[in-house]
Each structure stands twice: as C-alpha cells, then as structure tokens.
Amino acid sequence: xxxxxxxxxxxxxxxxxxxxxxxxxxxxxxxxxxxxxxxxxxxxxxxxxxxxxxxxxxxxxxxxxxxxxxxxxxxxxxxxxxxxxxxxxxxxxxxxxxxxxxxxxxxxxxxxxxxxxxxxxxxxxxxxxxxxxxxxxxxxxxxxxxxxxxxxxxxxxxxxxxxxxxxxxxxxxxxxxxxxxxxxxxxxxxxxxxxxxxxxxxxxxxxxxxxxxxxxxxxxxxxxxxxxxxxxxxxxxxxxxxxxxxxxxxxxxxxxxxxxxxxxxxxxxxxxxxxxxxxxxxxxxxxxxxxxxxxxxxxxxxx
Length: 303
What we know:
Layout (H helix, E strand, L loop, with lengths): L8 H13 L2 H8 L3 H15 L4 E4 L2 E4 L1 H20 L12 E6 L2 H18 L3 E6 L3 H10 L4 E4 L8 E9 L1 E6 L11 H6 L1 E5 L8 H8 L5 E6 L2 H4 L9 E5 L5 H4 L3 E4 L8 E8 L6 H13 L6
Parallel strand pairs: 3-4, 3-5, 8-9, 8-10
Antiparallel strand pairs: 1-2, 5-12, 6-12, 7-10, 7-11
Helix pairs in contact: 1-2, 1-3, 1-4, 2-3
C-alpha cells in the first residue's frame, strides 16, 4: 500500500488510455482532456516507471517491453477498482463509447447491417471504428490492445485470445456458365487445371483451401489474389476463372443469371467463423453486451 501513496490514481487512468491507444491525441480524446495535459502526464509516468513507455518506431508509436508488461495487470486492476466503487450497471441506452472492430468485407456484409440497426435503436451512444487486416494482424492487434473485437477464422490464436463461434461455414465453387455449363461437375484434376481466384488479405497466404491441397501434395494456379469478397464474384463473368468461397458470402441474386455453383471436388472441412477478443476484455460489461449482440446478429447464419 505504501507504493500507492506515491501516485495519483488518475495517472493510472491516463496510463491505461495511453497504452491502449498508443497515441497521445487519441488518449486525450478518450479521457476528455487536452493534449498538453496528457503529454505532461506521460512525462510523469515515464519518470515514475523509469521507462519511456511509448517510443516511435517506423513512424508509429509502439509500447516498450515494460509498457507491454503493464497493460494486462493495469487493465485488471482498473476493472477491479471500478467494481469496488460500485460503478453503475452498463446501460446501452446511455453509454457513450467507441469500440474498435476488425473484419473483412465478407463479415461487414453479413453482420454490419443488423448490428448497426441494433446499435442505433438500443445503443446510439456507441460508435464503431472498423478496420480490415490479415488474420495475423488481427490477433496481434487484439494482443496489443488496439482492437476490442475481431471477426474471422483463428485456429492458431494464443491462449489469451478468447473465441466464440458465430456460425459454421462451408466452401462452394463458382464459375461462369459459358465456361462451365450448369450441373456439370469437375474432377479434381480438371479443377486444378483451371485458373483460380483466391480471396486473401495478404497474397500468398496459406488459407484453409491451400492447407487442404498441400496436405495432398497438390497446388492450384492462383490467377488472381485479391482481398475484396464483394468484388470476387464480379470478376468471374466472361472468364474461365473459378472461385472457391465461403457459402454465406454469396446470396442468390449474386450469381443466378451468369454463374453456376458446385461443390468443391476435394474434401474441404466446414470451419467455424468466430468473434475473438483478448481475455482482458472478458468482464467488460460493454464488451459483453457487444458479443451478445453480435451472436444475435448471426442467428440467421447458424444451421
């Protein structure tokens, strides 16, 4: 307890904002304080911990090793203090907060419309900041506290990353009817011989399809690799390209006139599409509400 007498506990709130935002101006906005005041607090914190805490690397502010080690216990301590002083129960109707989510345009198409309708009706004070990143990038941002929630497929997540399955997906193939008449099936050899469209945020990513092929010592010809789910179907008409994609990314009106669909000619396991968060957020009432709402928004996609 003697150590606590040496510090203004408000500094811990500023430290939490700085370590989470990794940016003085954003931390000031979050705290409703001026930038000079937060800069002064950062100088005090650097002296208190005898560490720079935030350093500039490659044009961005990064946490030092000491700062990274402080984030989890600081988050836990502040949550505990908040419960101790009897903070009011979370009320979505009155809460003002900005939550940071990461998802592909596949998830944005499925989840954002019902999610935003719910937010505007039940939690109009909650704002969303949505970004897109690779699977590895999302996990790193969750680990570093840069994200509140990420949507995707995360089979290799660290133990600190919590997950909840939103729905289970399966793969389906699409092609132009002119190049592949409807109801015609392809053998695996014929499928491999055709040029393919690959949906990846980062080119040359080994996704679930590539893993299944590599396990059999096979490769396919990736003619186009792109990160835009919404554009993938639109590049198929008038070409001999094949697209193998998660089934929920496509609605009937997307392909009924020009494209045909068929099952992949190799076994591709169904996979869980999940929401993921760092264990630091587990007991955050606003975060719990967001996760419950996200599950409700995905009701139509669960078989």
